[in-house]
Design goal:
Elements: H1 5-31, E1 39-48, E2 51-63, E3 72-73, E4 76-84, E5 86-91, E6 97-100, E7 104-107, E8 113-116, E9 123-132, E10 139-140
Antiparallel strand pairs: 1-2, 2-9, 3-10, 4-7, 4-9, 5-6, 5-8
Length: about 140
């Protein structure tokens, strides 16, 4: 079977374009590898004295490099104190705030926020929460 030189050139061009597109799609898929999960160590959760409809809890959270959560809100208050590394804290619609070891913040009930570790080192913080008992700890924001 005889192929015209132009037809042969177009076929080679198409094959090359398909190979490049396939390679680009593979790189895009690999670059979207999910960040490693947080590691939580809950010290306690117990009813709040004089208000059994709420619970107080304390936990330690380790965030690997590149980890973070999506915007969310809580059914109560949250206090965070960074012990190691840096945590980027963002309230939706406001500029991010970088918290370093020794820094702390307070998140009022219902505030839509997120935490991220945008560094190449782990971050660790402790978190105290006073939440409504029996409700999910967070919901998307």
């Amino acid at each position: 079977m005889f192929k015209h030189p132009r037809e042969e050139f177009v076929n080679k061009l198409i094959v090359g374009a398909v190979l490049v597109a396939t390679g680009m799609a593979a790189v895009a898929a690999w670059s979207q590898t999910p960040a490693p999960p947080f590691q939580n160590h809950r010290y306690f959760t117990m009813p709040l004295e004089k208000d059994p409809t709420r619970e107080v809890g304390l936990q330690s959270v380790t965030m690997p490099p590149g980890a973070g959560n999506e915007f969310h809100r809580h059914p109560g208050e949250q206090w965070t104190a960074v012990q190691e590394g840096e945590v980027t804290f963002t309230i939706k619609g406001k500029p991010p705030q970088v918290l370093k070891a020794g820094d702390y913040n307070y998140v009022p009930r219902g505030t839509v926020h997120r935490q991220q570790n945008l560094t190449d080192k782990p971050a660790r913080y402790i978190e105290m929460r006073i939440f409504d008992k029996g409700k999910p700890a967070s919901e998307p924001g």
